[in-house]
Amino acid sequence: MGSQYKQLTLEERERIYALKEQGKSSRDIAEILKRNHRTIAREYKRNRYAGQEYIPCKAQEMSDKRTRTQRTNAPLKNLQVFLYVRVHLRMRWSPEIIAGRLKVDIPGESITPETIYQYIYGKGKKYKLHKYLTKSHKKRRIKTGRGVHKERAHSRIPNAVSIDKRPTKANNRAQVGHFETDLMEGIRSTKTALSVTVDRKTRYAIISKVKDKTAKNKQKVLQITLKTIQSLKRVGKPIVRSITTDNGSENTNHQELSQELKVPIYFCHPYHSWDKGSVENMIGRVRRYIPKGTNLYKYSTEQIQWLENTLNNTPRKCLNYQTPNEVMQQEANKYKFRRYMKNKEAQTQSLEVNRWGTSS
């Protein structure tokens, strides 16, 4: 008998019928078929009409019908999983994130992303749950490749430092404090935009509203947001180590910003948006709440802050289904511990010097 239960097949049911005709008991039949004897007894009880002889083909038909009914009545396994999926779909969590986080929030329960997709586009289609997905497609679509622009020889930004010179720890997401930034546009008739900045390792996002897409306002917003993070290092928060951005005209003041924040700024290759994939992904997530063609001017600072908090508290597969806030807090604690140990070591050395004196 295997460790995982499997439904009886028609062939097994035919063998059960034949062995029963030979006078074999349920335990004897179970031993021959390598099944549990309770499975054989239950088969006779459930899959034959009352007062009639056990017939293999009829038993198979009854079993198939019961299976179809169960899957129709409980498309997402059970009520607890059903409610969990429905609630978090409306929070705009992807099926993959829901499936991964379910194991953490409800130990012992599991579901696959494909099952959730089948429910959305199958039995749950009448509830129009597709509108909570990333692309909000009414019908499932097959992914296809897409073309890319040819790379230009040089950046349009003066004195731009290429992303090729970015530290390995930033490229490998091995160190916190390496940020990517970009502007998200609204409708072209208005100048208002959103500045989106994301830490590469923790995926922690900072979203701010800017009056227009000029270099002056972009620089001002980054100075305020990133200086705030730098000031938090005194209470154990990670510092800003680098910034990666694109070749948009709003980044022409990069040298002033670099001097002000005392961090290097790197530029992507022209038309290579995937060089800053973290912030591109985050902008895609923001678009779930603020679709293209929306006037950003009407959104208040409080609404943008709510959106930032929501995204930073949404589990991510790349973070092993933890939230950016949780991972950032872990990094902050590590940084605080390293500072504590460094200070403790410095104090120990100071005591040794005071005790024994300095060498001549």
Structural description of this entry:
This protein has three domains: 10-72, no CATH class; 79-132; 161-324, Ribonuclease H-like superfamily/Ribonuclease H (Nucleotidyltransferase, domain 5), CATH 3.30.420. The protein is 45% helix and 8% strand. It is built from 13 helices and six strands. α6 crosses α7 and α9 runs parallel beside α10 (254-261). 25% of the residues are buried. The model is unreliable at 146-153 and 351-360 (pLDDT under 50).
Question: What tags apply to this protein structure?
Answer:
single chain; 360 residues; alpha/beta; Nucleotidyltransferase, domain 5; 6-stranded mixed sheet; elongated; disordered C terminus
Sketch the topology as an H/E string, one letter per element.
Answer: HHHHHHHEHEEEHEHEHHH
Question: In one word, what is the shape?
Answer: elongated
Supply the number of structural domains. Answer: 3
Radius of gyration: 30 Å
Task: Classify the beta-strand content into a percent band.
Answer: 5-15%
Helix segment count? 13
Give the C-level CATH assignment of the largest domain.
Alpha Beta
How can the largest sheet be summarized? 6 strands, mixed
**CATH homologous superfamily placement of the largest domain:** Ribonuclease H-like superfamily/Ribonuclease H
Mean pLDDT: 82
Q: Which structural class do the helices and strands define? A: alpha/beta
Strands in their spatial order, largest beta sheet: 1-6-5-2-3-4
Low-confidence stretches: 146-153, 351-360
CATH architecture heading of the largest domain? 2-Layer Sandwich
